[in-house]
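Attaching the record inline, Q. Sequence:
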Amino acid sequence: MEKKLTSQDWFSSPFFHQFRSSQAEKDAEAFVSQLINRLHPAHGCRVLDSACGQGHYTRQLASLGFETTGVDASASNIELAKKTGEDNPAFYVHDLRLPFWGNYFQLALNLFEGFGYYRTRRENDNAIRTVASGLQKDGLFVIDYPNTHYMASQLPEQESHRSGDTFYQVQNFQNETHFYKNILVTDPSLGKPLEFSFERAKLSLGDFTDMFSFQGMQVQEVFGDYQLAPYHLNETPRLIVVAKK
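Structure, as predicted:
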């Protein structure tokens, strides 16, 4: 068996994109549209899609009339994102823990699987700092995260999924501070199965409030699902936080 691969390997892998169902993609697109309708950013304003993956939602934002920039730590994801050859959106390989453009964007988004995989709290703080520094005064930062209280009670220890000829075996673990995931991928195209293993921090609303406050930002709204219903500690699956600089 090959050595275990990391979260960045997983999110750069074609097996991750195959793992996400087409219905999940449609639901995510609907969420992005609903979020924009709720926030009413100015038409043509500059938007940052941080941890953008292959740029699917970055392009959706550009199609809605925004000047959009997508950044991701994965060079292979950005290479695929750039294949359309469009000027808007623009894509860059960038690690969010490191400084990026300052005082430039009016809106920044970090959606779906884009946050919480760093090993230390300081690294998470650095990523928040990078995005906050990139916002102009009164700019908004939206971060979408699992509601860890809900997830802790709902997470199965084992899961299995099949997509075509690809089979996924998933093991989930948790302790007081992190969720741990081990994904074994079996596919006829592989000589040996691939094993991905990574962790995600159990960040709460209080954690995000503190991290935003440290960067001079204040929480404005909190939603609990992709239909923008109110957040409830143990009842809603997502923690979607809107903070203002």
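The CA atoms of residues 27 and 73 lie 25 Å apart. The first strand starts at residue 4 and ends at 5.

More tomorrow.
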